[in-house]
Design brief:
heterodimer, A: Hypothetical Protein Ychn, Chain: A, 4 helices, 5 strands, B: about 130 residues, Hypothetical Protein Ychn, Chain: A, 5-stranded parallel β-sheet
Chain lengths: ~100, ~130
């Protein structure tokens, strides 16, 4: 069973991304939305945590929320996939459950 | 696929209301069914027709109403959360002896059982919040 995890807060604001990567089961997907997109940036104090988690989890980031914050896709950690809202919907369909880390 | 959406955050708070709105639109565009949108906690503030944001700003309550009108969505506001926050429909107005009501078109006030039912009836429950 695979779970789509959504994280909507910056890892510099809350610990929801940290809790998510610590507890999410292998094979799951993590979608960073809203301020959560900052967790997908490379060269930050949280980047290593995400890069390590990518051994077990697939990371996605919501493109429109990146754009709204002026974060260029070139600043993302390698391997993080950008999706739009249609891709978000597809991820909820492809996984068995959606879990929001609020 | 059948979806239920839960919104726990009010409009103009952070971004969850808009995210939920965009997700709902995208799911409908992809041909999925939205069984119900349940507004809980501060999310009930999405259901007032008295919001009047600046003209160049998105009117989130109106957007929900328009989407409900277009697609026949079931927009349900949690009654206990609504009572605390002053979201009132005709029935609540009479029951609580209020001098008016403010529920937006397409919304209805009901109980938490509606969320449970939505979770059971739908194949996916997607939660947006603070």
């Amino acid at each position: 069973m695979s779970i789509l995890h959504t994280v909507n807060k910056s890892p510099f604001d809350r610990n929801s991304l940290e809790a998510c990567v610590r507890l999410a089961a292998k094979g799951g997907s993590v979608l960073l939305i809203e301020d959560g997109v900052y967790g997908a940036m490379k060269g930050t104090s949280k980047s290593d945590m995400v890069t390590n988690a990518m051994k077990d989890l697939t990371f996605y980031v919501l493109g429109p929320d990146l754009k709204a914050r002026g974060v260029d896709e070139g600043k993302l950690i390698d391997g993080v996939k950008v999706v739009d809202y249609s891709g978000f919907v597809n991820l909820t369909v492809e996984n068995d459950k959606a879990q929001a880390w609020l | 696929m059948k979806f239920a959406i839960q919104v726990n955050e009010g409009p103009y708070n952070h971004e969850a209301s808009v995210s939920a709105l965009n997700f709902t639109k995208a799911a409908l565009e992809a041909g999925h069914e939205i069984f119900r949108v349940f507004f809980y906690h501060d999310g009930v503030n999405n259901g007032t027709r008295f919001t009047s944001p600046p003209q160049d700003d998105i009117n989130i309550a109106n957007s929900w109403s328009a989407l409900a009108d277009k697609h026949g969505l079931d927009l349900v506001v949690c009654v206990a959360a609504a009572q605390r926050r002053g979201i009132v429909d005709q029935g609540e107005q009479e029951r609580q002896g209020k001098d008016g009501n403010n529920i937006a078109p397409g919304f209805r006030i009901s109980g938490l059982g509606q969320l449970i039912e939505a979770g059971i009836q739908s194949e996916r429950l997607v939660v947006f919040g603070d």
